[in-house]
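Hi Y.,

Following your request, here is the sequence exactly as I used it, all 182 residues.
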Amino acid sequence: MVSRQLKRWQALHTLEIVYRDAFNNQLNDRYQAKFLEYQALSRDARERNFRFGVGLALTPIPQAQVPVISAVAGTIPETTYYAQTSWVAVSGQEGEPSEMTAYDAPAGSLPVVQMASPPAVATAFNVYLGLTPDGLALQNQTPVPVGQSFTLPGTGLTAGAAPGDGQSADTYISGGWMLRRG
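Below is the corresponding structure, written out as tokens. Let me know if you'd prefer a different format.
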């Protein structure tokens, strides 16, 4: 699982490599100082990551694909909707939302969101819609079962939770510098 500690380690390690390559290419002391600074920060972030533990999901849920959006007759004027979806497992865990997509709904219609190719662990999906890319909100009261579709009500968008950033870890492995197999 991608944790904050892992993201920090990856960012610092990337900066370390960039400045190392710049120093080795230019042989300029100003790059060496940055390289050594980011090397120390990267090492510290790595140690913190392993001390906190590496997150594991017992039943990983893949990122959802971009939803298929169509229209049915309705009462909403011509509008552009931004959408994301996410898979939901039987345990209630929610996977990472899909890439954002835009849909231009014609006047007098309602958007219908469908999902294709569900993973084996998914039993349902959530739909996030908004009028701006930053204004997405959960539209379904309960997860929509796999094989069904979600139609926006004639009353329009509802206020709901924003999309999450993926599944949380079920357990953390810590206490060693090697990840165990099996």
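The chain has two domains: 4-52, 68-151.

Thanks again,
Q.
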